[in-house]
Amino acid sequence: MQSNYPIGTPGTPWSDAEKAAWLAGQLVKRSYQQEVLSKLQHLPQAFQLEQYGTLPYTGDYPLFAIRNQTFNPAKPYVLVTGGVHGYETSGVQGAIHFALTEAAKYSDDFNLVILPCISPWGYETINRWNPLAIDPNRSFYADSPAPESAAVMDYLASLNAEFLVHVDLHETTDTDDSEFRPALAARDGVVFTEWGIPDGFYLVGDSENPQPEFQEAIIKAVEKVTHIAPADDKGMIIGANVEQHGVINYAKKALGLCGGVTNATYVTTTEVYPDSPKATPDNCIDAQVAVVCAALEFIQD
């Protein structure tokens, strides 16, 4: 279907003028300082807060990582990322909640690196894009145009670590079909095809390295917390084939996804559905935490 997005001309990609018009309509709706940074001051003793950058935007957007006080190179390195898409609330809050309540249990066995809010401007304005109308989660590649993605890649390179596990925390929301994907179609001058939003949780594995047993262990853990999204009548979720119960696969590196930022053996991207009548904000956060714990326990076993 043709997108009726209010900015731009159908079939014509946006110029700088349309991008500026889009940016002018974005408003701060919540506080990164109050909802994210203030919580990071209460980490368990095993962890430290490390600033890895500052975004070059109007506003105060320092970027922080949570990590073990000391790394032991003999132990596996684990990366947890949240808020690549700032509007996906439980990704951010789930990463924080894991750090505050569960991470200490695993600090003796793993070198943990948690980036709880990669896109704080997106968090405050409840956006998928950054102010440049760029999706950070399609921008994890060399010479990235997204400052959020570039900062993460620079920081990870500075650690000189080989990660075994990477869990990237996301949501799929009703606004994906009502706002963000129509905006994408308008920006790129292409036809908008509606996905249909699945009711429930699912995972996105890596088509180049699917690790089905790892994905299955996580799904089983999440089923105790929230419901798993069923396939649609075509055997798909958001236009991708369901490869196993609750799991689709994307080519993470080829698409420039955050899930492809490392060479980790075990990689998964969560997709919580906060708009379900069966879900609550706390339930969504609990699902994200359950994923990280299940991933770590899979390695421990």
Brief sketch in words of this structure:
By secondary structure, the protein is an alpha/beta fold. It contains 8 helices and 10 strands.
3D architecture notes:
Helix content is 31%, strand content 18%. The longest helix has 20 residues, at 281-300. It is globular and about 55 Å long. It starts with 15 loop residues before the first helix and ends with a helix. 45% of the residues are buried. It contains eight helices and ten strands. The protein has a ten-stranded mixed β-sheet, with helices on both faces. Helix 3 links the parallel strand 3 and strand 4. The protein is α/β, with parallel strands linked by helices and 301 residues long. The protein has a single domain, classed as Aminopeptidase, CATH 3.40.630.10.
Discrete helix count: 8
Biggest pleated sheet: 10 strands, mixed
Query: Which architecture name does CATH use?
Result: 3-Layer(aba) Sandwich
Low-confidence stretches: none
User: What's the CATH superfamily, by name?
Assistant: Zn peptidases
What class, by secondary structure content? alpha/beta
Provide the helix percentage: 25-40%
Walk me through the topology.
Elements: H1 16-24, H2 32-37, E1 47-54, E2 62-68, E3 77-82, H3 89-101, E4 111-115, H4 120-125, H5 147-159, E5 163-169, H6 175-188, E6 202-206, H7 212-222, E7 236-237, E8 240-244, E9 247-250, E10 266-271, H8 281-300
Parallel strand pairs: 3-4, 3-5, 5-10, 6-9
Antiparallel strand pairs: 1-2, 2-4, 6-10, 7-8, 8-9
Helix pairs in contact: 3-8, 7-8
